[in-house]
Amino acid sequence: MPTRIAMLASGSGSNVENFVGYFDNHPSVEIALVVCDRPGAYVLDRAGRLGIPSELIPGPGWQEPAPIIQKLRARKIDFLVLAGFLRLVPPGILRKYPDRILNIHPALLPAFGGKGMYGMHVHRAVIASGARESGVSIHLVNERYDEGRILFQARVDIAPDDSPESLAEKVHVLEYAHYPRVVEQYIQGISSPAGTGP
Q: Rounded to 5 degrees, what are φ and ψ at 39?
């Protein structure tokens, strides 16, 4: 049975679609579930169009992780991958999936990370700082925003005339190119019975 990934998302889900395409017909990894915390988020429509099961768990539902863990175990989920998921993962879920939750941040951590630093907020801060480069950081998730062990970084130069919007486009290219591949390599580097959950 393949290793099964649940993707957690709060927004449009473009990274979810990128992952589904990357792992389509993969011999050992499967995108098995999309979990969203925001009613009306486009990722739910996208998951339906892609034929991926989805679960909507609005904000209050994350205060008690046990029902969420039950849903993940029922789907035999092995890894969680955050794709624009803006909520802090509850400690109970972290304990059930130790070193099995991954995230991507649109800057070079440890700079420009932490609570409230996501999306265009990050790119505006990077441009305002006068930094000469930015990029992506793929990291494990722990109990604090953007502080888990960094697995991979890719960099891009910032041109003098770059805006937050143009920088975002450059960083998106890096996200789509590297995130699924790094997740694949990380999963394949961990020895565990596939499909059994934590």
A: -55, 135
* Single-letter code of the amino acid located at 176: Y
Size of the chain in residues: 198
CA 14/CA 11 separation, integer angstroms: 9
Contact 96, 118 (CB under 8 A): no
What distance lies between CA 55 and its chain's CA centroid?
16
pTM above 0.85, yes or no: yes
Q: How far apart (Å, rounded) are the C-alpha atoms in residues 192 and 134?
A: 35
List alpha helices for the chain, DSSP H. Answer: 14-22, 42-50, 65-74, 91-96, 120-129, 164-188
For tokens 């092995």, the residue is 78
Which residues are 5's β-sheet partners?
A: 31, 79
φ, ψ for residue 14 (rounded to 5)? -65, -35
User: For the segment 57-68, what is each residue's pLDDT rounded down to a tens digit?
Assistant: 998 999 999 999
Please say if 105 is a catalytic residue. Answer: yes
Catalytic one of 26, 105, 139, 178: 105
- Integer angstrom CA distances of residue 50 from 1, 20, 116, 160: 21, 8, 30, 39
Query: What structural domains does the chain harbor?
Result: 3-188 (3.40.50.170)
Q: Which amino acid is at 76?
A: K
Q: How far is CA 152 from the centre of its chain?
A: 14
DSSP per-residue letters across 153-170: EEEEEPPTT--HHHHHHH
Model pLDDT for residues 105-143, shown as the tens digit of each residue: 999 999 999 999 999 999 999 999 999 999 999 999 999
